[in-house]
């Protein structure tokens, strides 16, 4: 894993971590798969905060734990770089832009979502997500699929998830990949310098809140909101889209179907984690203090995933250094590439590519990113403009 840094470096890096993740939070469109691509581009390739295999291990761990997968990856990067404060800065920085925009959309209701220019701009950003995910997938494929067996594991994972998309399939293929890797993909190991201990306190807090909050929920509406959204965050595997039915059950008759779907559409339209859908719902569910409701719901839905991550991350890092585990991680890394291939098609590709103009813009975007090294902000500007202009191009063809 990443090298250990001193306490002074940790405190000095806290604002830097926040600043980097805050800038990413404004441009990370496209959902969890795209976020993984953005993180890899920033922290593996550009800043080299961690190696590609370390990054893949974090991605794999996020697939096994409930909660928002890409946000857990970001939290883990910040946690390794700057301890608990670093993890919190990464979370706040990456999530804050999305929260602010969801609050704005909650106030503006459906007016902005119905505007055609807004929909065209969002379409352009979905095309950018295709570029980012494709780049991340290809980069990780080159690193982790160098043997026939690792290529087989990668492609088998992609095929399984494309044909049978579910969280159970995802967990099953990762486990099988680990078993195959343990047997036939041995890797280099180094003596572990990390203790084999779980962080007990965050795990105990996770359990206490999971079972204790429902007992206190009737005391006040704000506690009820915290309890409901904490339960949802504790039970969701597989990312933001999976949380939809749980949140729909939580809302029930308190919110109209149109209002609920408007919020869900808004969560897909803004950058950052889709779990900030909770921001919109919390705003609507506590009309006497909507900002409080929004913040409480947001914190509650993210908290369980982060508590579990902190509880097991050090143990995961220690295991990664031990003999017999390196091969399993090689298998899992190859499987993660297959997971990204599947995600590149569904939901990224199918929600963005509709005609020859779209695929042409994606090819142009790949060229701008890889050959001309266009920075991400410039890529965002280009694709927003392309999205606004694409209807005119489509009509000319």
From TrEMBL:
Q: Where is the signal peptide?
A: none
Gene Ontology cellular component annotations, sorted alphabetically:
plasma membrane
MF (Gene Ontology)? chromate transmembrane transporter activity
Highest taxon above the source species: Bacteria
Query: Where in or outside the cell?
Result: Cell membrane
Q: Which residues cross the membrane?
A: 20-39, 84-108, 149-182, 203-223, 229-247, 259-283, 289-313, 325-345, 376-394
Keyword set, alphabetical order? Cell membrane, Membrane, Transmembrane, Transmembrane helix
What topology in the membrane does the UniProt record assign?
Multi-pass membrane protein
Q: So what family is this one in?
A: Belongs to the chromate ion transporter (CHR) (TC 2.A.51) family.
Q: What is this protein called?
A: Chromate efflux transporter
Mind giving the lineage of the organism this protein is from?
A: Bacteria, Pseudomonadati, Pseudomonadota, Gammaproteobacteria, Vibrionales
Gene that produces this protein? chrA
